Amino acid sequence: MDDSEIKDLLEENLKLSKENNRMLNKLRSAQRFSSAMRAIYWLILIGISVGAFYYIQPYFDQVKSLYSEAGTNYNQLKDLKDKFPNFFNGTTEQK
């Protein structure tokens, strides 16, 4: 090989190295952007979940109180049935 061939090969090698470096830098910046977007996505998702919890919690509390009131009312009716068994059977005879 003579000097001109070596020089051409070195120039081509330098050109390819620069191109590879440019592509690697683009890949790295795309990876950083992707990581940042993924973090933003998760922050938004968690924020929406927490916000929805605080927004919906009063409704859950209302439903919970309704169920507890229904349970209390059921227990009161059960106690009344035990006290007045004939009334709930449809008979009014007293023994």
Q: What structural keywords apply?
A:
rod-shaped; mainly alpha; 2 helices; 0% strand; single chain; 95 residues; 91% helix
Q: Topology of this structure?
A:
Elements: H1 3-83, H2 85-89
Would you give an account of this structure?
The protein has one domain (3-87). 91% of the residues lie in helices and 0% in strands. It is built from 2 helices and no strands. It has helices spanning 3-83, 85-89. The longest helix is centred in the middle third of the chain and has 81 residues, at 3-83. It is rod-shaped.
Q: How would you summarize what this structure contains?
A:
The protein is mostly helical and 95 residues long. The chain is built from two helices and no strands.
**Mean pLDDT across residues:** 88
Per DSSP E runs of 2 or more residues, the count of β-strands stands at 0
Structural category is: mainly alpha
Major sheet details: none
State the helical fraction. Answer: over 70%
| N to C succession of SSEs | HH
Rg, nearest Å: 39 Å
Task: Please tell me the total number of domains.
Answer: 1
Shape: rod-shaped
**Ends apart, CA distance between termini:** 126 Å
Fraction in beta strands: under 5%
Task: Flag low-confidence runs.
Answer: none
Number of helices: 2
